[in-house]
Amino acid sequence: MKILRAFTLLCLTFLTVSSAYAEVLRIPISQQGTVTIEMPRHGESQQQVINRYGEPLVHKAAVGQPPITRWDYVGFSVYFEHSTVINSVKNHQAKHPVAP
């Protein structure tokens, strides 16, 4: 009987000790990373973007109607409607442009 009690106590001890607790860390996407990249602003022209940032590494052809074009730079991509910036977004990995 003593052995059964000791075994039960030992099992309960392992169950108590082996319980693991995890903490979930949530970081909003806008706060991930510390690098600040200045990007083209809504309303700028393609020529203004070229003047400020140079030629893009990747120039994706227009798609859809109205035509939407994407230019990829190191660290960010720029979306144009016709020849006007509609949005600029940081790339997930700033080392390479977004894959075509």
Report on this model:
Strands 1-2-3-4 form a four-stranded antiparallel beta sheet, with no helix packed on it. The chain starts with a helix and ends in a 10-residue tail after the last strand. It has a single domain, classed as 2-Layer Sandwich (Beta-lactamase Inhibitory Protein, Chain:B, domain 1). Helix content is 25%, strand content 25%. It is α+β, with helices and mostly antiparallel strands. The mean pLDDT is 81.
**Relative helix content:** 25-40%
Question: What fraction of the residues are assigned to beta strands by DSSP?
Answer: 25-35%
Q: Stretches where pLDDT falls below 50 for ≥5 residues? A: none
Characterize the main sheet.
4 strands, antiparallel
Structural class designation: alpha+beta
**What is the CA-based Rg, rounded?**
27 Å
Average per-residue pLDDT, rounded, comes to 81
Number of extended strands: 4
Can you tell me the CATH class?
A: Alpha Beta
CATH topology: Beta-lactamase Inhibitory Protein, Chain:B, domain 1
Q: Report how far apart the termini are.
A: 71 Å
Number of helical elements: 2
CATH architecture: 2-Layer Sandwich
- General form: rod-shaped
How many structural domains in the coordinates?
1
Could you state the order of secondary-structure elements as H and E? HHEEEE
